[in-house]
Amino acid sequence: MFFIFGFGSKEHELGAGQTRTCGRCGNTTVWNRLRTAKQFTLFFIPIARWGRRELEVCTICGNAVTV
Ligand SMILES: [Zn+2]
Fold first, then answer.
1. Which of 5, 16, 41, 52 could form a disulfide linkage to 37, CB 3.0–4.6 angstroms apart?
2. Is the pTM of this model over 0.70?
3. Which residues keep their CB under 5 angstroms from ion ligand 1?
């Protein structure tokens, strides 16, 4: 008997976030809001999720902040 298991992170897009001025690229745009979580899977079925957090990501350079 063998097990197929894995660790990964799951991202879920929540749509448009706030309009922000990026500290990295300096552009003012509407950022994308994402929810990410770490997960452990067994036979491709998620068994556990933790570390859920929400981020907003600059659409120009990919800079992310926790919200
Ligand atoms: Zn940026």
1. 52
2. yes
3. 22, 24-25, 58, 60-61, 63
